[in-house]
Amino acid sequence: MHKVNVALIGSGFMGKAHSLALSELSVLFPDCPLQPHKYVVVDVNEELAKTAAQNLGYEKWSTDWESVVSDPQVTLVDIVTPNDLHKPIAIAAARTGKHIFCEKPLSLNAQDSYQIYQEVEKAGVKHGMGFHYRKIPAIAYAKELIRQGKVGEVFAFRGFYLNDWAKDPNGPLSWRFQKAKAGSGVIGDQCTHAIDIARYLLGELEQVCAWVKTLIPERPLPTSVFDALGRKTEGRGKEMGKVDVDDACAILFEAQGGILGILEANRCASGRKNYLSFEINGSRGSIYFDWERNNELWYCSNDDRFEEHGYRRLLMGPGHPYGQYFWPIAGINIGYTEAVAINFYQMLQAIVNDTDCDPDFEDGWRIEEIVEAALRSHEEKRWVLCHAV
Amino acid sequence: MHKVNVALIGSGFMGKAHSLALSELSVLFPDCPLQPHKYVVVDVNEELAKTAAQNLGYEKWSTDWESVVSDPQVTLVDIVTPNDLHKPIAIAAARTGKHIFCEKPLSLNAQDSYQIYQEVEKAGVKHGMGFHYRKIPAIAYAKELIRQGKVGEVFAFRGFYLNDWAKDPNGPLSWRFQKAKAGSGVIGDQCTHAIDIARYLLGELEQVCAWVKTLIPERPLPTSVFDALGRKTEGRGKEMGKVDVDDACAILFEAQGGILGILEANRCASGRKNYLSFEINGSRGSIYFDWERNNELWYCSNDDRFEEHGYRRLLMGPGHPYGQYFWPIAGINIGYTEAVAINFYQMLQAIVNDTDCDPDFEDGWRIEEIVEAALRSHEEKRWVLCHAV
Amino acid sequence: MHKVNVALIGSGFMGKAHSLALSELSVLFPDCPLQPHKYVVVDVNEELAKTAAQNLGYEKWSTDWESVVSDPQVTLVDIVTPNDLHKPIAIAAARTGKHIFCEKPLSLNAQDSYQIYQEVEKAGVKHGMGFHYRKIPAIAYAKELIRQGKVGEVFAFRGFYLNDWAKDPNGPLSWRFQKAKAGSGVIGDQCTHAIDIARYLLGELEQVCAWVKTLIPERPLPTSVFDALGRKTEGRGKEMGKVDVDDACAILFEAQGGILGILEANRCASGRKNYLSFEINGSRGSIYFDWERNNELWYCSNDDRFEEHGYRRLLMGPGHPYGQYFWPIAGINIGYTEAVAINFYQMLQAIVNDTDCDPDFEDGWRIEEIVEAALRSHEEKRWVLCHAV
Amino acid sequence: MHKVNVALIGSGFMGKAHSLALSELSVLFPDCPLQPHKYVVVDVNEELAKTAAQNLGYEKWSTDWESVVSDPQVTLVDIVTPNDLHKPIAIAAARTGKHIFCEKPLSLNAQDSYQIYQEVEKAGVKHGMGFHYRKIPAIAYAKELIRQGKVGEVFAFRGFYLNDWAKDPNGPLSWRFQKAKAGSGVIGDQCTHAIDIARYLLGELEQVCAWVKTLIPERPLPTSVFDALGRKTEGRGKEMGKVDVDDACAILFEAQGGILGILEANRCASGRKNYLSFEINGSRGSIYFDWERNNELWYCSNDDRFEEHGYRRLLMGPGHPYGQYFWPIAGINIGYTEAVAINFYQMLQAIVNDTDCDPDFEDGWRIEEIVEAALRSHEEKRWVLCHAV
User: pTM, whole model, 2 decimals?
Assistant: First the structure.
């Protein structure tokens, strides 16, 4: 088994998630042809980097991502920095021939993302995107049911990502509420997971019509550093600043083949904590999923007799995708770490087999095109084609 | 207590529902100032009318709605005929000074509905609409929570009416699949209930953007009479006919005050049986409801402590609207009949107190305007204002 | 169609429920061979009786149950009085040849109930028991699935009746908390519904082992009249009285054929409002039901493929028992009144067809034997046979 | 940070689970005072042991547990062998001064378990038990709510462990169906988790009354090795063998302070996959949990206003126990691995702080006493005291 030296660039919440996944990976997937090694972690100063190396279990640390990216010992660059650094790191890594795993979004806009995508393709490196949620057994099984024809012709799709972490108007004006740093609000953040799942299950989205809205237009200016989600309320200032990105969005879409659907995201939806959910209705059956119960998939088959027709609750287990890697009976359950681990595992397989990652940077770019089309649709109050190419 | 002689015009599924409600009404609501009397029922031929009188408990029967409408003994005309007869009956009843209870939709289009509305207003009679679903305690309590400010500023609304009675492509081409008879498909049928609830809870809808879709474009021509929902498959012909109305629709909307939301309806959504559902997220809390569990309301309050914050499941009982009329503990449950009974009860109160019915024909007309705006939006692929006036 | 003159003895909560059911009955069931007529209502004083006649829609009223019971115009005596009057009224009614519908429990103890049962059998009148809950489509369909062999050999049964109406220690010491008036506590009240369902689905219970417990040992003495559930807290006194019956019970049982199960009831189970629930696991499948969602039945079939095996949620509709009498699509929903109406409807059929009511007074007696065996088991800390005969 | 060299004895399903937990541990808990090192793994032959070392990530392998247990490099012996080996390994490990983490059950009977417990106490080593389920945030938060008095006086407890992995009568007669190898059936296996949770939340169980039952009395003799749950059906023989342990059990119990409750376990409960569930009702509120949705806790407070009183669904997140170690918003979810990791983490803290593990071998022994009391109760058809001491 060959080792893959991983360079983790960034050590926040997602850095921890990735490191957990890497720690689990070879135990979960004994057939994995490559074994990831936590080689080096990078953060902005020595204290953060040192602590990260110790806490997350990396052999080395650094404050200089450029030298790390060009280190010949490094095989895979794992980007979990703030969004504005994705582009320079990814391009530098591609140019030194590193495989790249990048957290979503790929960059701050579709144009930059297209450029990154062109670079990695030219460099011939593998590129995986951090849309981890869809990698779990329940969603993989949804895809499998669709592939088997059990949904039939798709009649409708509705996808949501609702949570309420931003509902407090006293929550400070972190970078996620500023266009200059985040590009957009919930539409470019949570909503992209819903878009990712829609594309995964249905195929490309071709046109959209959307509204977006800023629900809490002003927030206290922060007076100190905050965590990744801007939820640390201590130290918020008395002055208020303007939120110039959306807190909520809703999208009508048409996917390839004329499939119609809706998508919605909201980060002030009180009572919804991590409601990444979808339902797909088809001529032969339906599927429903909600991440808050990530080990369940609801399935309804039109083959059922009339009086026994109804949604059934399937608890994921050995009969479902990746079942052999997890627990011997259904309902013992996996969590978020395993979603990330499956994504990494499949990327390692893609490296060995020289196949495309799924999702890859092309997906990252396409999703940003959709976000931008939706924002344009909101401005122009009409349907907008998603993709120029 | 005064008697109100009711003339029921039509004796299908809704005729039975109304008659059940009338039978229950005075027992349920002993404080009702008027007591309905099932005076006469009308249907298209003697056999149907006689049977209806016997089965539904009316004193008399008739095959001639015109004479019944002008019968001085009749106080209230209750219209449950096919949609195309609503207009002539309602106008005739108004002109002879009868109060009118009309099943939805008010007529085949907004223009006719406006005319009917003008007639009843001119005549000074009371006019109630059969949007019964929203009359139940759970939805009345949702309204009450909003009125108390417990939801706060409305951040988002999503409403659905999903069912699957039309999912079988071998279901015959009944009138509900024909534009000439039904006006539109699911958007003018199920979706109007979702629209009604949105308007009830939020206020007027001002503009919409929608898609509609025919999911099953051809169905077998029927060779005999079918039931109200076209579900009687015996006797369907071998020839196929074209469905020229929508089976599915999705609507982005803006309500008064800038509230944004979505609405969706689908009659081929396998696994959903009577999923008339809504969720409203606001600055102080959220509410969720699903008719399939019509005795529950889910409520989340931002006053709850962070670690105890979550949707709570409220089972309707004596503490909720109409609680004194139903059962002494929560969870004993009411069904659809009670929704209709509450609607009638409130109309009788409106007659006594000379107040407006809620909903009334103005609501019936406004909802049809919204449906037509949505259909126009679909044609023109843009946002459309709902109301001319 | 023949009329059945009904004499309602008692006009509280259950009197209203029965009257609603009678009002609905002939509209719901047009094929009903007998039509109930609300002939006379009896209560303890003229004011109550008069008001009841007016509110509940009876032709006449009386304060003298004995003369009513012997009135030759009366065909069916419907007993909804406090429990201690059941015996004298039922025996008097039997001796004058009236059919009898009696609310549960049949009497204050098994011995009295046996005597009543002997009297009605000797008189040859029909006798129906007010265990209404089990009459709804969902539970009737559970029985049907069992009959079809879809559950197979019964592996386990668990039944519950949990609610929380008695959880407030300041709730007054109404008759339901006093052994002299109520016989027992929750075990003889709510728990008998769970026992009834167990017997209905499994057959006779043969032996039991139980614990019972008084959870709130003292309550304020009431200083005025209270409602049927003793929940009216106004007017409670400052002195405390002793609760000498159980608030909670749990029962291990063995039913005929060696089936094992558990039953539990609790009236102080905070958060449970009307949780009359059961689950039955068998060699071929399982069934789950909860009255709080009385229009749903959950069913799991071992014929399902391994990866599609799971409980499915069936919403009751036209394909299920009594489906033709209710709504044309599933999920429109019925409530408690319809349960009572079905029970009455079947009793009227039993009168016409000269068959036994189901449940009848034999069931009422047998259930009290089981309650007494459970109480004896608690005293003696061992398993006890339920039935002497 | 000091390293703890772990010797894993056994490499089946639980060996994988423990190894995953150890891999995650230091990343999850950066404040962990000791860092586990996967030092050596033992299995019955060279091939299994070598493969385990490679797949599970241990530095060394061995086929000789005795030499491993006495290896001075080993600090912690982690026992995940078949049950009959727990005793000799644990005693040997104690005698060489190793800390011990032992999967449940501690041994084949209470007497042996008591002996083991005496040995580890005498040796002064730390001893942790593998009742991992209760270590998750949801159950820890349930305990916290109880500790804060939010449940008040406990009115009732019901606990379940239902699953259906053994429902197929063609599933082979693995060791779990044989008394000689397993001691008992579901009562000593799944049910002990329910007992563990009951004791954790309520305190000691003092007396019990139970039934047990073998649901599938004969199964095909296996003709080859099967997996840990005996679910590998290939290779089952044509001859049948007798199952001499229980597949189902139900227990009435009295816990300290007079708390009454019920417990039930069943491994043929079709549709239940991993339903480790409990509900606790008290004078101030209630709690409900179900492992199949292991990231949720349902809580009902009697402080809520009457009309807003109902179970609320809490999704575990940063406000709950261990919240700082997992994800920044609720509903991202953890799985089974994290339960095991928390158990290990707390054991490492117990080693550093010289406190007792929770649960420890005393719990393991006490739980077996309860199992044996329940089995004796079944034999003698009466209540039985659980503990001699």
Answer: 0.96
Among B299, B308, B320, beta carbon nearest to D314: B308
- Is residue A385 scored above 50 in pLDDT? yes
- Report pLDDT digits (tens) over C142-154: 999 999 999 999 9
Instruction: Check the CA dihedral B106-B111-B115-B120 and report its sign.
Output: positive
Which candidate in B145, B306, B307, B315 is best for mutational testing of the D interface (most D CBs within 10 A)? B307
Mean residue pLDDT of chain B comes to 95
Cα separation, A93 vs A98, whole angstroms:
5
Structure tokens at A351: 């490296």
One-letter identity of residue C213: K
The list of chain C residues with pLDDT below 50 reads 232-233
Task: Grade residue A388 by pLDDT with cuts at 50, 70 and 90.
Answer: confident
Q: Which residue from A minimizes the CA distance to C150? A: A308
- Which of D288, D305, D308, D309 to probe the B interface (max B CBs under 10 A)? D308
B97, amino acid identity: G
pLDDT at position A223, please? 79
Same domain? For C144 and C74 the reply is no
Closest chain A residue to D327, measured at CA: A13
CA–CA distance, D188 with D172 (Å, rounded to integer) = 20
Q: Are residues D201 and D173 located together in one domain of the fold?
A: yes
Nearest to A209 among B167, B209, B279 (CB): B209
Q: Is A47 domain-assigned?
A: yes
Residue A226 has pLDDT above 60, yes or no: no
- What is the structure's pLDDT at C233? 47
Are residue B254 and residue B279 in the same domain, yes or no? yes
Indicate the residue of A307, A308, A312 with minimum beta-carbon distance to C310: A312
Cis peptide upstream of residue C105 (ω within 30 degrees of 0) = yes
State the residue range of the domain holding D238. 137-333+367-380
Mutate to test the interface with A, among B146, B155, B309 (most CBs of A within 10 A): B155
Mean pLDDT over residues B194-205, rounded?
Answer: 98
Decide if A55 and D335 are in contact by the 8 Å CB cutoff.
no
List the Cα angle B126/B189/C315 in 5-degree steps. 110
Q: Does residue A301 share a domain with residue A158? A: yes
The mean pLDDT of B133-144, rounded to a whole number, is 98
Where residue D371 sits, what CATH number does that domain have?
A: 3.30.360.10
How many contacts does B have with D, using Cβ atoms within 8 A?
Answer: 40
Closest chain C C-alpha to D70 CA, distance in angstroms:
45
Q: Give the C-alpha separation, A312 to B289, whole Å.
A: 21
Residue C52 is part of a domain; what is its CATH number?
Answer: 3.40.50.720
* D63 plus D88 within the same structural domain: yes
Q: Minimal Cα distance from D323: which residue of B?
A: B307
Q: How many C/D residue pairs have CB atoms within 8 Å? A: 128
Asked whether residue C184 falls in the same domain as residue C225, the answer is: yes
Tokens of D295: 């990231």
Residues C105 and C143 in one domain: no
Integer angstrom CA distances of residue D302 from B152, B302, D147, D261: 25, 18, 16, 21
**Is D276 a domain residue?**
yes
Residue C196 contacts residue C131 (beta carbons within 8 Å): yes
In a domain, A7, yes or no: yes
What pairing do the DSSP bridges indicate for beta strands B2-9 and B34-42?
A: parallel
User: Which of B24, B275, B335 lies at the smallest CB-CB distance from C334?
Assistant: B335
Q: Is a pLDDT exceeding 70 seen at residue A231?
A: no
Query: Which residues in chain A touch residue C313, judged by CB atoms under 8 angstroms apart?
Result: 310-313
**Into how many domains does chain C fold?**
2
Asked whether residue B354 is assigned to any structural domain, the reply reads: no
Pair (C90, C159) in one structural domain: no
The confidence score (pLDDT) of residue C183 equals 87
Average pLDDT over chain D reads 95
Q: Would you give the DSSP letter of residue B103?
A: P
Could you say which of C141, C307, C311 has the minimum Cβ distance to residue A313?
C311
- State pLDDT tens for residues C220-242: 998 765 555 555 445 567 899 99
> Which of D84, D102, D133 delimits the end of a domain?
D133
Domain stop point among A87, A107, A133? A133
